[in-house]
Amino acid sequence: MTVHLKSPEELATMREAGRIVAVAHQAMREAVKPGVTTAELNTIAETVLRDHGATPAFLGYPKHNSPNFPASICASVNEELVHGIPGSRVLKDGDIISIDIGSVYEGFVGDSAWTYAVGEVSESVQRLLETSEEALWVGIRASVLPNETKDVALAIQHFVEQHGYSVVREYTGHGVGRQMHEEPQVPNWWPRGRRQRQNWISYPLKPGMTYALEPMINAGRPETRELSDKWTVVTRDRSLCTHFEHTIAITEGEPLVLTLP
Ligand code: MG
Ligand code: MG
Asked: Which residues surround ligand 1, an ion (CB under 5 A)?
């Protein structure tokens, strides 16, 4: 298990990869509205990435026993949590959609997801969105020395559970760099039982460490399942869910958020 610490030059390139993802998200914020299809959003985002000299990190992404991912963004609506495949689905007023965008720029990856309200959403849905976004920032604020990944995970989990929601167990944040998924894994919860924890590693944070923090939060129970397309993950109880993600870099002080505009 190797954690690749990035040099200042590598961090500068990663910042650019992240900035391009942020520009694509700005385009999403404007384009997400009732009547648009998820395929149209995919085209808009891919155009932004390519116009900035980046390529989509997700397009053709391989997965064991599944077809390669066929699109440039993941578009997951309502009870869909992650890895939704863009297509002919038309967004409706009151939906929520999580859009995950990855870029590759000069050999480095930027990775960021955001959950958007489509038109007007109810107050309870608005509260779910705001709490989930705040959970990401709780994790970012915990990403400081001398913490370990366990401290980040527990900070997110406590915050989310205090607000009456649940944290998805099966998917985690991850190191990012030349690869989209590197060490360390950064979970959003930490098991209590010693047996459950057997294969869990808490990594001490180090300056130059870069990872994508991505709490996935369910309004209902934490369990998920994968649909027959072998990609789309939904909540098992079909409750609403959210996904907010930034790629960050650990420093001696506050972490740098690489996927901001
Ligand atoms: Mg992502
Ligand atoms: Mg990610």
From this structure: 100, 111, 113, 245
Gap from CA of 198 to ligand 2 centroid (Å): 24
**7 C-beta neighbours (distance < 10 Å), count:** 9
In the chain the domains, ranked by start, together with CATH numbers, are 8-257 (3.90.230.10)
For residue 220, the CA-to-ligand 1 centroid distance in Å is 22
C-alpha to C-alpha distance for 73 and 43, rounded to whole angstroms: 9
DSSP assignment of 196-233: TTTT--PPBP-TT-EEEE--EEESS-S-EEE-TTSS-E
pTM value surpassing 0.70:
yes
Can you say whether residue 38 is alpha, beta or left, with left for phi > 0 and alpha for psi between -120 and 50 degrees? alpha
- Going by the DSSP 8-state scheme, the letter that residue 64 receives in this structure is T
Binned at pLDDT 50, 70 and 90, residue 1 comes out as low
Q: From ligand 2's centre to the CA of 192, what distance in Å?
A: 25
- Average pLDDT of 95-119? 98
* Distance from Cα 197 to the centre of ligand 2, integer Å: 22
Q: Which residues contact 196 (CB under 8 A, 6 or more apart)?
A: none
SS3 category, 47: helix
